[in-house]
Amino acid sequence: MIEINQISKSFAGKDAVKDLDLSIPDGKIFGFLGPNGAGKSTTIKMMTGILPIDKGSIVMNGIDVSKDPIKAKLQFGYVPDRSDIFLRLKGIEYLNFIADVFEVSQDMRKEKIEYLTKSFGIYEALNDHIQTYSHGMRQKIVVSGVLLHDPDVWILDEPLTGLDPKSSYTLKEMMREHASRGKIVFFSTHVLEVVEQLCDEVAIINNGHVQFKGNMAEMKQQFAEDDNLERLFLELTQNE
Predict the structure, then answer these.
(1) 194 close to 171: Cβ distance less than 8 angstroms
(2) Other beta carbons within 10 Å of 7
(3) Are 34 and 204 in contact (CB under 8 A)?
(4) Which pLDDT tens digits describe the chain residue by residue (240 residues)?
(5) What's domain 2-238's superfamily in CATH?
(6) Other C-beta atoms within 10 Å of 200: how many?
(7) Going by C-beta distance under 8 Å and a sequence separation of 6 or more, which residues neighbour residue 188?
(8) Which residues are within 8 A (CB) of 237 and not within 5 positions of it... i.e. 6 or more apart?
(9) Where does the chain have alpha helices with state H?
(10) DSSP code, position 231
(11) pTM of the model
(12) CA neighbor of 131 nearest in space, from 94, 78, 80
């Protein structure tokens, strides 16, 4: 479970996130929506420890991410919204580096690396440098690294960006399977159709505040039965 309790973050005196509360139960695919500048990435960076929390707390599987950051980081895998990292490493070097950090055994890492990279169609490129990869391939190698140690919580910031249809389908199936095992998938996206098809619950953030949290049925019931997600999203964020 993830408990986000009254967190706030400001930059140069301006609130990016203000008194944000979210409770995300196990076994859910949780969609995090909002327009550009709404506070999505800031929230995610506080969840992952990249940004310090000005006020409030985030507890992941019973571990406070501020008080015990190393133990908290073992609970999750994080796909950032940019995949331009470790470009001078070969794909296999990057995955072995991640496996070393999370103490994945040699036998397990070999099996997982082969499974993940073949699933995403990049197995044959593992001995190439990441800087030679296309944007989509870089996204795939980062996703493979995140899933390598099988963390309980997946935190994915725009994970489908740059993926071809086959790889996008593969990742969505992996997300469903992960949640079905009682784990959490927390992801932000601008692809509203994916949220409507995939998410068990959704939160919409705007101007640093949560405008709505619930499942799709509750959202549609709150507004109009025949509304689709795009119209609801635009209505909730109309003052942006």
Answers:
(1) no
(2) 23
(3) yes
(4) 999 999 999 999 899 999 999 999 999 999 998 888 889 999 999 999 999 999 999 999 999 999 999 999 999 999 998 878 899 999 999 999 999 999 999 999 999 999 999 999 999 999 999 999 998 999 999 999 999 999 999 999 988 887 899 999 999 999 999 999 999 999 998 777 788 889 999 998 988 999 889 987 787 676 554 455 666 667 666 654
(5) P-loop containing nucleotide triphosphate hydrolases (3.40.50.300)
(6) 16
(7) 31, 32, 33, 34, 40, 41, 44, 81, 156, 157, 158
(8) 34, 35, 38, 204, 206, 211
(9) 40-47, 69-73, 91-101, 106-119, 135-147, 165-180, 192-198, 216-222, 229-236
(10) H
(11) 0.89
(12) 94
Using CA atoms, how far apart are residues 37 and 33, in angstroms rounded to an integer? Answer: 11
Return the residue matching tokens 């301006």: 14
Paired tokens of 54: 């000005």
Tokens 């994915």, residue located? 156
Which token pair is 101?
């950090």
Q: Which two tokens stand for residue 174?
A: 């992996």
Residue ranges of domains in the chain: 2-238
